[in-house]
Each structure stands twice: as C-alpha cells, then as structure tokens.
C-alpha cells in the first residue's frame, strides 16, 4: 500500500524515530511502512492519520 508518510514527516521536520515515538511503534516499523513492505494494522493506521491530523485515506493511497 502506498502512503505519504515520508512527505508528511518531512513537512513537519520529524525523523522516523520521532514519528515512531509519537505513535508507539518501533522505528523499524515506520521504515517498513514507508517502503511499502508492511501494511499497518488498522489501529496503527488510525494513530498515524491522527498524529498528522488527516484521514486514513489522505495518508494511505489505494494502488488500484
């Protein structure tokens, strides 16, 4: 699943570690999600969207 996390982090000048800490996951999880190697669980996707003050649909993009 494609996502905008890298760009959203850059807009806020956050590192992967900053985002990981804000949503209570490991930095490795953020790396895997950003690279599209791992799709987050629904609770994690909601936390990511919430921390950016966006909807899930605005963060995660449908590849179809």
From TrEMBL:
Keywords: DNA-binding. It comes from the Bacteria. GO terms for molecular function: DNA binding. Residues 5-59 form the HTH cro/C1-type domain. CDD domains: HTH_XRE. PROSITE patterns: HTH_CROC1 (PS50943). This is Transcriptional regulator. It comes from Sphaerisporangium melleum.
């Amino acid at each position: 699943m494609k996502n905008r996390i890298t760009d959203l982090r850059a807009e806020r000048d956050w590192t992967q570690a900053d985002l990981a800490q804000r949503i209570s996951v490991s930095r490795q999880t953020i790396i895997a999600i950003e690279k599209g190697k791992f799709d987050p669980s629904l609770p994690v996707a909601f936390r990511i969207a919430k921390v950016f003050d966006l909807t899930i649909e605005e963060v995660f993009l449908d590849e179809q």
